[in-house]
Amino acid sequence: MAKNARNSQAKKTDTSAVDLIRREERRRRRKRNQVFAYLTLVVFVILIVVGVVAAVIMIGKKLPAKPNDNESMAGEIEDLVGPEESLEKPEVSDTVPEPTPEEKLDEIIDAAIEFMPLEDKVAGLFIVTPESITGAGTVIQAGEGTKDALNKWAVGGLIYFQKNIKSSEQLKEMISNSLLYSRYPLFISVDEEGGLVSRLVQAGLAENAGGAHAIGATADPAQAYQAGQTIAGYLGEYGFNLDFAPVADINNVENSIIGDRSYGSDSAIVSSMVASMVQGLEENGVSSCLKHFPGIGSSVDDTHVGLAATERTAEQFRAEEFVVFQAGIEAGADFVMVSHMAAPAFTGDNTPCTMSREVVTDILREELGFEGVIITDAMNMGAIIEYYEADEAAILALRAGCDMILMPEDFEKAYEGVLEAVRNGTISEERINDSLRRIYRIKYADKLAE
């Protein structure tokens, strides 16, 4: 029994040892399996990472590199479409561009015109004698009468003749006071052509710079320039800023009314003389005025006395007279004066050129491209007063395209007529403003240098 018990006990012991060994082996297998699973997972993760990196590298090789995250869309489009189809990135600035001097001048002019009463706007279209606004017989000084007149009528300018000039000091004081009394800048004007028509020379205040006929005979433009320079020099000393010169007419018919006031009969020579005279005046501070458009040299009649006309054809005018006026315009003339002569080749009748839209606007303003001030010849001449009232003549001239009215026979009547025409819509206020802009572009030209 004891032996059987021991054998049974030994057998149990052997079985327990075997079970223990088997459990240990299973535990080790599970551990190896776990390690293998972990290693497999790690390898799988590494393979994924390697795949992603490889993919990124491949994509990077196909797409252009960006310098930074702020690369503009315009730059990406340029890289994709190629250099020939690239889109330029617009520049954006918060700053407002500085206006040009011309733009500043336009702003000054517009501001000045905006605050002008209509009465002053209309008066500003007239250049008159001092007698016509003061009522005096002959004005040789600017005192209280001139002061009151300029306060009542804000005219655009004054014109003086030999009768107004007595001495150097008297002339300077009269002009200086007139400028002081005016609420707006004034054109101080005179006919100083050189030769026969020279008011200051006739009054003994200057040496004659030479007449157009004599200068033209030299065929030397430098002499015309010198004449303009000389005349501007002494006019400026007295306070004049506008000279109704040079004469741009061609002396091209026998007994022409223009006579020796013209530089000659050859349009090429006359053109060079006129251009040089304009430069001599303008470059020395005095505005020039080409006269008498479209050219009265082909007429033998005097518009001072009555109706004058020309048989000149449109083709002849364009081949000769217009060549001269174009040269003066290109040389920088501030003004062009239109004649009262009738030119049926353009108008079809005996309408004075000053009242013809075909001549003033269609030809001078548009065809020849003149952008300055267009002024009438003196409106107290026979060619006007024998056929028109002062107010009617002024209105017709402005409607034709003239900017300024020179010396109406009756200033107050002409002024009131134009004022009423604006009020009733016969002439628009904007039309008046357009003329004032051209006028003040000359009057304020010195502000471009400020």
Summarize the topology.
Elements: H1 2-62, H2 73-81, H3 101-114, H4 118-123, E1 126-128, H5 130-134, H6 144-152, E2 157-159, H7 168-181, E3 187-190, E4 192-194, E5 197-198, H8 199-202, H9 212-218, H10 221-238, E6 242-243, H11 267-282, E7 287-293, H12 314-330, E8 335-338, H13 344-347, H14 357-367, E9 373-376, H15 382-385, H16 390-400, E10 405-406, H17 411-423, H18 429-443
Parallel strand pairs: 1-2, 1-10, 2-3, 3-6, 6-7, 7-8, 8-9
Antiparallel strand pairs: 4-5
Describe this structure in words.
The protein has 450 residues and is of the alpha/beta class. The protein has 2 domains: 84 residues, no CATH class; 349 residues, Glycoside hydrolase, family 3, N-terminal domain (TIM Barrel, Alpha-Beta Barrel). The protein contains 18 helices and 10 strands. Strands 9-8-7-6-3-2-1-10 form an 8-stranded parallel β-sheet.
Question: Can you give keywords for this protein?
Answer:
18 helices, TIM Barrel, 8-stranded parallel sheet, single chain, two-stranded antiparallel ribbon, 53% helix, alpha/beta, 2 domains, 450 residues
What is the overall silhouette? globular
Q: Please state roughly what percent of the residues sit in beta strands, choosing from under 5%, 5-15%, 15-25%, 25-35%, 35-45% or over 45%.
A: 5-15%
Average pLDDT, all residues = 86
* Proportion in helices: 40-55%
Subunit organisation of the chains: single chain
Looking at CATH, the homologous superfamily of the largest domain is Glycoside hydrolase, family 3, N-terminal domain
